[in-house]
Design a protein that fits this description.
By secondary structure, the protein is mainly beta. It has two helices and 21 strands. Strands 2-5-8-11-16-18-20-21 form an eight-stranded mixed β-sheet, with no helix packed on it. A six-stranded parallel β-sheet has the order 3-6-9-12-17-19, with no helix packed on it. Strands 1-4-7-10-15 form a five-stranded parallel β-sheet, with no helix packed on it. The protein starts with 5 loop residues before the first helix and ends with a helix.
Length: 190
């Protein structure tokens, strides 16, 4: 995978760009002035990021993901991953037929839903899953492959299905590993 150079990344005008951020030269990022990406995070090939987006430390946005932050935004906390083809939407049209739809129609003819999306720390979202407006993901949750999440989760659960259902608790061993990782990272002489 080829990544954009630091010179190019700095010229794109991000709201914030941390250290050691890697972004594929095949990713599409719109509204860079509304996008913040913290240290050691990565955005892979064929991802689309648009609108207001905040990505924490050590986050991985794998190939073919879409993050549509819209006006209110999507926030992804540290150590979280979006697997291949995950879609995250912070806004949506009204599909009832009562109003018109799509981005080419003036606002007075539409009834869009706008909500901020929060994805907590240590979250993994499985391949081809979709996160709908208003569905916040609490810390430590695991969202199974091809899951449709249309409601918020509670911490440290494993969710699967269409629509998503909590099937069991997720192991919190990650928290011990995070402490060990950060301690070793801080003692690294590099």
């Amino acid at each position: 995978m080829a990544y954009l150079s630091q010179k190019i990344l700095k010229s794109m005008g991000f709201a914030y760009l941390g250290d050691n951020v890697k972004i594929s030269d095949k990713a599409s990022i719109y509204n860079c002035e509304s996008v913040s990406i913290n240290d050691n995070s990565r955005v892979d090939d064929f991802c689309i990021l648009s609108g207001k987006i905040t990505i924490g430390k050590y986050c991985h946005i794998t190939p073919y993901c879409l993050i549509a932050g819209g006006k209110l935004g999507v926030e992804i906390d540290d150590f979280s991953t979006l697997a291949y083809r995950v879609n995250v939407f912070s806004q949506s049209d009204d599909y009832s037929g009562s109003t018109m739809v799509n981005s080419l129609i003036p606002v007075q003819f539409k009834n869009e839903q706008f909500t901020k999306i929060s994805i907590g720390k240590h979250v993994i979202i499985g391949t081809a899953s979709t996160i709908m407006p208003g569905a916040n993901i609490a810390d430590g949750c695991s969202i199974g492959a091809m899951t449709l999440l249309n409601k918020s989760t509670k911490p440290w659960g494993i969710y699967i299905g269409i629509p998503a259902k909590r099937i069991k608790e997720r192991n919190k061993e990650i928290l011990k590993l995070e402490k060990k990782f950060l301690m070793e990272k801080n003692n690294d002489p590099i």
